[in-house]
Specification:
By secondary structure, this protein is an alpha+beta fold. The protein contains ten helices and eight strands. The protein has a five-stranded antiparallel sheet, with helices on one face. A three-stranded antiparallel sheet has the order 6-8-7. The longest helix is centred in the N-terminal third of the chain and has 26 residues, at 12-37.
Length: 304
């Protein structure tokens, strides 16, 4: 019995398995300890998330390296076979490899971060998680109007960052320019209409002008950009049917629908308070006159 135990304990395969188990335990205990004791002290949420993800990736790399070292004596005669197999695997898994490269680009290239609202591969929503292969998004829009969640969670391959444009609604400048159009009948008080729209724009969206101005200046320090007007602005054009006013304003990227609703509500109240000085226009048709109709009835032919 003792002889069998000695043979078992000194078996090279058993020794390698024991080395792997001990090595894995040491690797992951150290990584978990670092995540728990060091990374929790990082105040910035994005940096803490990236550090945790990167440490997990390092753990997997060390695991593969440990297995390679332990079984290195078994791999000498398989070098050519592994090279051919590796080439085939690389070709078959090229999408997976590109997705991994996309993850590296996302984590360290500043494409977007957790919580940003983005559009990837035609899908718009808020980033929930950035995995090594896929990015998880809580989708907005589609059958739901506006920028509201529709409840659908979408997984998008990270390779999309190299294939299609990445639209970030909340990156260095978390504001959007939006506008509404108001048709007004000819003969209305045009100056009063413009004054009302300017007043409503300042009341509803005016508090964001200074904040967005500061953000825009920081963008100008970082990129080559011209100065932009962040205050609300009213312009008008006259067409065949009515005078069309356009109210342009700046808004938080998550509050477009709420802000637009509040703007229309205030505009309706103030226009109704003008007692007819301002009238909204609509696409109606007026029949001005009916032309005279001449009817000529041929005489019956004789013999008919």
């Amino acid at each position: 019995m003792e002889e069998k135990i000695k043979i078992f304990l000194f078996d090279p395969t058993v020794g390698k398995i024991a080395s792997i188990l001990v090595g894995l335990a040491v690797i992951w205990i150290i990584i978990k300890a670092i995540q728990r004791n060091l990374f929790t002290k990082i105040k910035d949420t994005d940096n803490r998330y990236r550090a945790k993800k990167f440490s997990g990736f390092i753990g997997y790399v060390l695991t593969i390296l440990l297995l390679t070292i332990v079984f290195s004596d078994k791999l000498g005669g398989l070098t050519v076979a592994l090279g051919v197999a590796g080439a085939g695997i690389a070709f078959a898994m090229q999408e997976l490899i590109v997705s991994f490269a996309g993850w590296v680009a996302i984590m360290f290239g500043g494409f977007f971060k957790i919580g940003d609202r983005v559009q990837l591969g035609g899908i718009k929503g808020d980033v929930m998680d950035i995995g090594v292969i896929r990015t998880t998004i809580m989708e907005t829009g589609q059958w739901v109007d506006g920028d509201l969640y529709n409840g659908r969670i979408v997984l998008i391959a990270n390779s999309f960052v190299f294939k299609e444009p990445v639209f970030n609604y909340s990156g260095d400048f978390p504001f959007l320019w939006d506008e509404i159009k108001i048709p007004v009948q000819y003969g209305s008080n045009y100056e009063l209409a413009k004054e009302i729209l300017e007043q409503v724009g300042k009341e509803v969206a005016g508090d964001l002008s200074q904040k967005s101005k500061e953000k825009w200046k920081s963008l100008q320090d970082k990129y080559r950009l011209e100065d932009a007007q962040t205050e609300s602005m009213v312009s008008l054009i006259a067409n065949d049917n009515w005078v069309e006013y356009t109210l342009r304003y700046i808004v938080n990227y998550k509050k477009r629908r709420v802000t637009k609703s509040e703007l229309f509500t205030q505009i309706l109240k103030k226009v109704e308070a003008t007692n007819g000085q301002i009238k909204f226009a609509s696409a109606t048709f007026q029949l001005v006159d009916v032309p005279d109709l001449k009817v000529k009835i041929a005489e019956d032919r004789k013999g008919d």
